[in-house]
Design goal:
This protein is of the alpha+beta class and 463 residues long. The protein has three domains: 100 residues, Rossmann fold (3-Layer(aba) Sandwich); 70 residues, ATP-grasp fold, A domain (Dna Ligase, domain 1), CATH 3.30.1490.20; 243 residues, D-amino Acid Aminotransferase, Chain A, domain 1, CATH 3.30.470. Helix content is 32%, strand content 27%. Strands 13-12-9-10-11-14-21-19 form an eight-stranded antiparallel beta sheet, with helices on both faces. A five-stranded parallel beta sheet has the order 3-2-1-4-5. The chain has a three-stranded antiparallel beta sheet with strand order 7-6-8. A hairpin with a 5-residue loop joins strand 9 and strand 10. Helix 4 runs antiparallel to helix 5 and helix 12 runs antiparallel to helix 13.
Length: 463
C-alpha cells in the first residue's frame, strides 16, 4: 500500500479521498490554488502545497505544478478525483514516466474511451449495443448528410473529445445540418482543442442510466449496479438515484454484463462508469465511458456498502479485487441531490459568494459530502457545487420522503442554492411516479416557479 498520496483536486472530492486514505493508513498531500487557501481539504490533509493562482489553467490543470508538488513531498501516488486532470491521458503518462502511480486507468485506456467515436467503435466490436450513427468521425457536410439520410432525423453532431454536453448540436431537419455541423466543430475546438465530430441518431426522451464498474490488474471486473441520471439540465446531471425506476432485474443483469464486456475490451482497471441510454421499450445503447470516479459515486456506495474510493486506491496499489459479483447486494433505494451555488430562478446562474450560515441535515440514512461551512466563500473560478445530499430509504417512496425532510433541514444562507429546486423535483407527480426521462426539466420546469414572490432581486436562500 502507498505511504503517501497527493490529491490533485479540490472541494468535496478532495475531502472524500482524504477520508479514504486515512482509512487505509495513508498520509495525504493537498494541493491548492491561492483561491482555495481556506478550503477544508487543505486543513485536513497531512501536508499541503500551494500550486499557483486562482485560474485553474495555472494551478489544478497544470501537470508540471502537480508533479512538482508530488516530488517535493515524496508522494508515491496521485489521485485525480473527477474533473480537472482526471481523464487526461497525457497526465497519466507523465505520472508513469515520473514513477508516480496514477490512481486510475493508464493513458491508453483513457485515450481509447476519451475519443467518443473510437470508444463507440470498440464497444460495437465487443458486442455492446450502440446508438445508430456514423461508423467513425465525419469530416465533411456531405458525410453528415449521408449518415442523416441513412439513420433518419433528428440527429446529434457530437464532439469526439466532448463531455458534459459541450460540442453537441441537434439537427431536426436537412436544412439544419450545416449549422449544427459547423457549430459543433467550433465549440469542440474551443473547449477541447479537437474539432473532430461524429453523428448519432437522437433517441426520443430516453432514460440516462449508467453502470458502475470496478476492475483490477488481474482481469477481474465486476459491476455495482446502475444509477439513473435522467434529471439533468443541458446534459448536466442534477439528481441521481438507484435503482433506476425503469430497470428491472433482467435489464440490470444485461446492462451489467454489457458494461463488463465493454470494460474487458480495453482491459480496464480502476473505478469507471459505462453510460447507456434506455428507450421506452427497455432497449439500451452505449453512450460513453467515464474513466474516473463519478460525482455521484456515493449513490452506489450507500446502495451496496462498497467504498468505491477505497477500492480504487487498493486496485492502483496492485491489490486484487476482494469482491466477486455474487458479493454485491443492493439495499433499499438511494437518491442524491447536487446542492449547487446557482440560482434556478435565473437560469441556474452561478452564484459565488460568502455562505453566512450553514447547517447540514443528519439522521439515519442521511449523508452529506461537502467542503462548505459558515463564512466559507464559494469562489467564482471553479464548479459551483456546495455539496451532495445522499439519502437511503427502504424503498423509493421512503427515500423521497427522507430526502425532502433532509432538504428542509439544510440551511444555506447568503447565496442562492438549488435546495428549493430539488424540493420541486421530489414532489412533482411525474418524478414521484417514476414517469420521467431526460426531457423532464424541459417539459415541466419554469424559472418563475422558484422566483421570490414580490421581490425583484434574490439576496439569499434558506433551504
Amino acid at each position: 500500500m502507498f505511504g503517501k498520496v497527493l490529491i490533485a483536486n479540490r472541494g468535496e472530492i478532495a475531502l472524500r479521498v482524504i477520508r479514504a486514505c486515512r482509512q487505509l493508513g495513508i498520509r495525504t498531500v493537498a494541493v491548492y490554488s491561492e483561491a482555495d487557501r481556506d478550503s477544508l481539504h487543505v486543513r485536513f490533509a497531512d501536508e499541503d502545497v500551494c500550486i499557483g493562482p486562482a485560474a485553474a489553467a495555472n494551478s489544478y490543470l497544470d501537470p508540471k505544478r502537480i508533479i512538482a508538488a508530488a516530488e517535493v513531498t515524496n508522494a508515491e501516488a496521485i489521485h485525480p478525483g473527477y474533473g480537472f486532470l482526471a481523464e487526461n491521458a497525457e497526465f497519466a503518462e507523465i505520472c508513469e514516466e515520473c514513477k508516480i502511480t496514477f490512481i486510475g486507468p493508464n493513458g491508453q485506456m483513457i485515450r481509447q474511451m476519451g475519443a467518443k467515436s473510437q470508444a463507440k467503435n470498440l464497444m460495437r466490436q465487443a458486442g455492446v449495443p450502440t446508438i445508430p450513427g456514423s461508423d467513425g468521425l465525419v469530416d465533411s457536410l456531405d458525410q453528415v448528410i449521408a449518415v442523416a439520410d441513412k439513420v433518419g432525423y433528428p440527429i446529434l453532431v457530437k464532439a469526439s473529445a466532448g463531455g458534459g454536453g459541450r460540442g453537441m448540436r441537434l439537427a431536426g431537419a436537412p436544412e439544419e445540418l450545416e449549422t449544427a455541423f459547423n457549430m459543433a466543430r467550433a465549440e469542440a475546438s474551443a473547449a477541447f482543442h479537437d474539432d473532430s465530430v461524429y453523428i448519432e441518431k437522437v433517441m426520443i426522451n430516453p432514460h440516462h442510466v449508467e453502470v458502475q464498474i470496478l476492475g483490477d490488474n488481474y482481469g477481474n471486473i465486476i459491476h455495482l449496479g446502475e444509477r439513473d441520471c435522467s434529471i439533468q439540465r443541458r446534459h448536466q446531471k442534477l439528481l441521481e438515484e438507484s435503482p433506476s425506476p425503469v430497470v428491472n432485474d433482467d435489464l440490470r443483469r444485461r446492462m451489467g454484463e454489457a458494461a463488463i464486456l465493454g470494460a474487458r475490451a480495453v482491459g480496464y482497471r480502476g473505478a469507471g462508469t459505462v453510460e447507456f441510454l434506455v428507450d421506452n421499450e427497455g432497449n439500451f445503447y452505449f453512450m460513453e465511458m467515464n474513466t474516473r470516479v463519478q460525482v455521484e459515486h456515493p449513490v452506489t456506495e450507500e446502495l451496496t456498502g462498497v467504498d468505491i474510493v477505497v477500492e480504487q486506491i487498493k486496485i492502483a496499489a496492485g491489490e486484487r479485487l476482494a469482491l466477486s459479483q455474487d458479493d454485491i447486494k443492493f439495499r433499499g433505494h438511494v437518491i442524491e441531490c447536487r446542492i449547487n451555488a446557482e440560482d434556478p430562478a435565473r437560469g441556474f446562474r452561478p452564484a459565488p459568494g460568502r455562505i453566512t450560515s450553514f447547517h447540514q441535515p443528519g439522521g439515519h440514512g442521511i449523508r452529506v459530502d461537502t467542503h462548505a461551512y459558515a463564512q466559507y466563500v464559494i469562489p467564482p473560478f471553479y464548479d459551483s457545487m456546495i455539496g451532495k445530499l445522499i439519502v437511503r430509504g427502504n424503498d423509493r417512496g421512503q427515500a423521497i420522503s427522507k430526502s425532502l425532510t433532509a432538504l428542509d433541514e439544510f440551511v444555506i444562507e447568503g447565496i442562492p442554492t438549488t435546495v428549493d429546486f430539488h424540493k420541486w423535483v421530489l414532489t412533482h407527480p411525474d418524478f414521484v411516479s417514476g414517469h420521467f426521462d431526460t426531457s423532464f426539466l424541459e417539459k415541466h420546469f419554469r424559472e418563475e416557479m422558484l422566483a421570490p414572490k414580490g421581490e425583484p432581486e434574490q439576496t439569499g436562500t434558506k433551504g
